[in-house]
Every structure is written in structure tokens, then in C-alpha cells.
What does this fold into?
Amino acid sequence: MKRIVLYVITCFLFSFSSHAQNNVDLGIKGGLNLTFFNVEVGGFGTYTETETGYYGGLFADFYVDEFLSIQPEVLYIGLNDFKFLNAPIYVKYQVAKNFDLMVGPSLNYFFDFFSNKFKIRADLCSAYNISPSIDVHVKYTLGFVEIAPNGLFIGAGLRL
It folds into this structure.
């Protein structure tokens, strides 16, 4: 599991060497994280609990053509006692001027709390480009197992 996380981070760092090409943008992003846990309340059904946290990290945008790109990210997420790395790999499509939709898998490495520290989730994201270098985005992450919670991310990105 650690090898996979190390591999993703290494690939992302090597992408910095590609910055000299015209078809790659690098940047930073961060914001607010709302995570939804479904908790079984002894015989009374499911109760949804929400925790608030933060996230921040780096991204690279590899342009395939004018409207399509691949955007890997490496994000550090803090959520009370939860601390983990999130590495989504998005397929990004410009659906309208300044408006993008992104979808892709999300690789997650949890530093503590879980015995199985590596989890794969699915992400759906939209971003609005306020300027050529600043965007605001909303991302929804869907966990596939009962202990992989769903999350809503609201933040901003800055292309360097």
C-alpha cells in the first residue's frame, strides 16, 4: 500500500519537470471539507454525522486538447483525528466557457484509525475559472465501503 502512495507522489513530482511544455499547468488548491459518516444507532436506524475539516495540496493539469485534460492531485486532508493523503486522478472536460467537469478515481492513504490504510473512492467535481489563474471548485467523494465516508469539498485553486 505504501508503495502505491509513494508511486503516485513520485509521478506527481516528476510532472513538475514537464512544466516547460505549453500543455501543462501546475498549481495549489485548498479549502473546506465536510465528511458524512453513516452511524448505526442501536435499533433506531442510521444516523448521519458530519465532520468539518480542511484540505490543501498540489495539482498538475496535462492538456490533451483544447477541451480535455488529465488532472492528478495530491492533497493532505485533516478532519479532527483523521489525517490522510488523497490522490485523485481526474479526466477534466470543459463543458462551457470557464466551467469544467471532472471525474475519476481517488486513491487514499489513511495515516491512522484504519487497519486497512489504503482505500479507493470515486470523485465527481466541478470548477469555475474566475480568471486564467484562479478557480473555485466543488467536489463530491463517494466511499465504496461502510467505513469509507462520503465527502464534500469546497475550495479554490491557483495556477502557478
Notes: Residues 79 and 131 are 30 Å apart (CA to CA). Helices lie at 2-15. The beta strands are 24-41, 45-63, 68-79, 82-96, 99-110, 118-129, 134-142, 150-159. DSSP finds one helix and eight strands in the chain.
